[in-house]
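call fold(seq) -> tokens
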Amino acid sequence: MAHTYTDQDIAQLSAPAGSVLYGDGALVVLKALLESGISYFGGYPGSPTANLMDAVADAYEPLLKDMGVYFESSSSEVSAGALLTTSVYGPVRGAVTWKVVGNGVAMDVVDHVSQLGVQDGAMIVVGEDYGVSSTTVVQRTLAWGVKSGLVVIDPRGDQQLLHRMVKEGMDLSRDSKCVTALLLRPQLSHTNAEIVVGENVVPAISTVRPVEGFKKDPTLFALPPFAQQQERDRYEVRLPTAARLTVERGLNEYFGDAKARIGLITHGTTFNTTWRILERLGLADDGNALDTRLHLLQLNVINPLSEAQLLEFFAGKDAVLLIEEGQPDLLETQMRALLQRNGSSLDFHGHDIVPGIGELLPERLFAPLATFLDRHLGEGLGGGRLAEQFQVRMEEGQRLFSKPVPPRVPTFCTGCPERPVFSQMKIKETLTGEVDWHAGDVGCYGMAGFKPFELADSNIGMGAGLAAASGITAMSRQRNVSTVGDGTLWHSAFNASAANAIYNKQDATYIVLDNKWTAMTGAHENPNVGKLMSGEPMNTEMSIADTFKAMGVKHIERANPYDFKDFQKKLERIRRDAKIPQVRVMISEAECQLQRQRRVKVERQRDLEAGKRVEIERFGVDEEVCVGDHACIRFSGCPSLTLKPSPNPLRTAPAAYVDNTCVGCGVCGEVSHAAKLCPSFIRVTRVENPSLGERIKGWIRRKLVPPLGQALEQMERA
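ret:
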């Protein structure tokens, strides 16, 4: 289990009202949910909310289980969204979570829940990330929320406010009967702070306090004749109620002087960036005081907007700047339409001044905001000059580096079991000249699209890689070799890709990278692990191979990717099995190296402290033999492989070198031999707490085999 919260962290979740909790956004959100009296929690892990799943899993046994909170690690966002149905049919409140791209996956079921309406609080904690620091597709939840009729809460960067907005969002959901989406951005999710907490509420209906049954209600079907009435309720009653309660409960915030002639409107963490710039301009301080010439409205609730609140804010203003991050610019569109309908002549600005694409970092917002304020507060402010100084300081900071920081592409971890799969495919392609079409999708294996492999020709939708190749390979002479991870396979690929390919007689080799974890989103358990995320046993076995067999796949191979010889033989065997169009499956079975090392290092340290004999395998390079061809790097790309000057003055090329991060997986050596290029690798078994006989043998080997001695000395220095 990769969860990282300590017992002390989790103990804070039981703290009584008035206590101080110190933690990140996940702990803050979970504590607020417990204070809201949730009965269930589920989700599909994804940054930047994967740590929320970790927090719930770590808190399950010591706290949530006894409270009766049902917890599941949902197989996909569809499953998680369907869990919200619980709040449709009973007075039960709960929450689910996923990252922003999961909105599209869950859309079908959430649209149904939203149309029906909920009895008690139902919240989706969405990992919003318009800056794409943890996701790939650039998108905003707001567009989905507007389309699906959700209340969308986008708190500014303040953990105490986040705590409040979770609880207010739950109550707003209950009182408006709307589903609420709370946006948890990286700035909130990964920031630690102290907050004052309230009292946990034990749910009235739970796993330890079950009801006899949920009441059947045929009107709660999204079918005629009920569907139109549900739609009227959503847009004529529920959302207007949410907009009214947002104002009545003060969920949006004001700063500055209400009589000021210049207005600013922010949302989410654009408030924090804006405020920091205002401080630099001398118009604000860190105590929430704002220049009296300015009036700022922070929208913590961005859907639905209260037209009455906006018109009141616009009244008496000469100019207003909306600082909206990203596209589509729905806030600006709604505000401009509102002003037009009311015949206003207000000087209103938005993306005509503020950058419309990309995250609004300070360096991107400083000049536009300073220019607007100079125009309306007078050139004496000197905002443009300060913006230029800000840019100059940034450029000076960049020049402090003696050399440009080289760009780094994402790559597999040291020892990753997916690296040898792509190494072997790359070697085969190089030696034979056969270029296959490699369709991929979302997962660690997407990094194979970068150097040195360049073996992910598409990266389309989670679990849709094989399906994405169906038309491409049908209309070309290329063979289709697609890869998928085990986590993605259980998430959606069995249906979206495998069933589609088998049914439509797609001719393809499907390589399943079974590393036993949903690894890229933070190493979470999946059906291959054999236990639930809570740590409880599954009490059954879910077999990838048996599932493919049941679906009709006739040729399935299983292999260890670190065993190049066996793996290549089996991979070639299923490639040749193409007499009729069919799906052929190769299951690469080896545990995620990060997860393995988390376990192995603890066991090794325990044995060392107990004085037990411990073997540690490492690889080295004979510098005298290395000719500088670097096939080991070109066909592997392992982070532990690097270069150093050759000790031979007649060789200009640097020698390969294995640094101290090596975990002894052996891929570099296997690559060198499989590529038929290099004999310079040395495999070393380092023995800790050796016997007397082993110490004597080791001394002799060092003297008789100098390269081995050099490698051992390198390891000892490391």
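The two ends are 28 Å apart (CA to CA).
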